[in-house]
Amino acid sequence: MTFRTLVITNMNQETFDWTTKISEDEVAFIVSDADKVVYVWNGQKASNVQKYKGGTLATKIKSLYQLYGYRTSTLNQGEEVGSLKAEIENLLGGKGTPPGEETAKGPPKAAPLAAERVSRPAPAPVSHAAPARAAHVESVASPRVPEPAADRRVEELEAELESEKKKSQHKLAKLKEDADAAKESFEKQIAELNAEIAAARKGTVDVGKYNAEIAQLKGEKDSLNVLVEGLKKELEQKEDEAKGGADADKKVAALQAELDGLKGAKAKLADAEAAKAGLERQNADLAGKVSSLEAEIAVLKAKAEGSDAQKGAAGEVDGLKKQVESLQKDLADERRKSKEALDKVAESEEKLKKLENKAASAKEESHIAQRELIVQKEAAKQMEGLDFASLDEVETKPPGGGGGGGAGLAFVNPYSGGELGGEIDPLTDLRSFLNTVDPSKPLDPELKSLLDIVSKKIESDTDILPDLQKIKKKVKDKKLESLLDGTIKKIKDAGK
Fold this sequence. Notes:
This protein is an alpha+beta fold.
């Protein structure tokens, strides 16, 4: 199997080039024309920013190089198998498959200014809850049918969920930008510290620059604290919203939406902690540079013992050391606050588990209520056909057909099997079958149509005969087809 490999030549301008060699600290795109797949390969030493950027650039590559119909697959170094594994090993050794002549000429047309980013979130699961069963019913009434407002509410919740996801993606991108900016800032500070060391070797130290660096680090610390507090408030707001909801269907949908929102907030907290950890590592590097500077200052101080002017510089160096100690104390406080934020994340995870258990319980109650609603509907349908004789039509008959004796009331039931009435409900067998269907599981369109037909109020069974005949033509289950055939025949016989 042949492959073609692309690497990013400029991350900011989003440009690419074909290659026969890759390294462990970059992201590469291996194109398999035979399988129609673009593999996004993440080297084990590639940064998180590179991996994130690589995932978004895969769509641009498929458009830029007209790889229509190709799917995208992401894998990390060490997850390769088969011929792809062999190709990756060759690429790491600089002996990958070279591109063809037409491929090496470059993309067939100019690339767009920005990669298209299409987000297709899965729709939030919807729970169809039924009204709760009454504790005591004196008379059987037609069951209440759920109003269309529930469906509209579900659509609104899905729209809110989509909006929250977009906001989360925007915040994540902003957080990554802030992390990159912080990285650049620390690199700049390191360069300035190197310059300060060079200046100290010449006998002069600019204390003002250290004051500016300390103020900048404090500002960055305050910004991180504000970010953590905002995420904590968002979690608390989501937890308060999860307590609302009176009806079973709204409660389940709201709980699911809140769970998804909290998981997104949890992911954002994790990203924030990862960024904070990176800053702490950079701070550690900075502390190392400061220690090195202190060693240089100690050497200069030893050399400056014979000069009054140099002694004055040594006093400035001592003041600088105190400022460095203050900075290290601030860093320690920041690490302590970071640990407290991690503890809050653990508490949020525990609350998430409780909410998930609560949602599962609500779904189970909803399923039980739906089953009871079906039973109530069937009972109401049966009671609509009952007819009681008037007291004026009471006949007094002696036992055994003779004169004298006890008196009895005539009870007329159109679906009884005795001498009075003599008719049998043609839909009895069909209703019994549908009562065994689990409404919590996905239903075929034919079963859903049958449930709707037998649940609604009808004047005569012949009114639903055309609908049953249409459903029978589409049914694939032989047992259900036979049951429908028998029901249709019974309705026709009863009509005669």
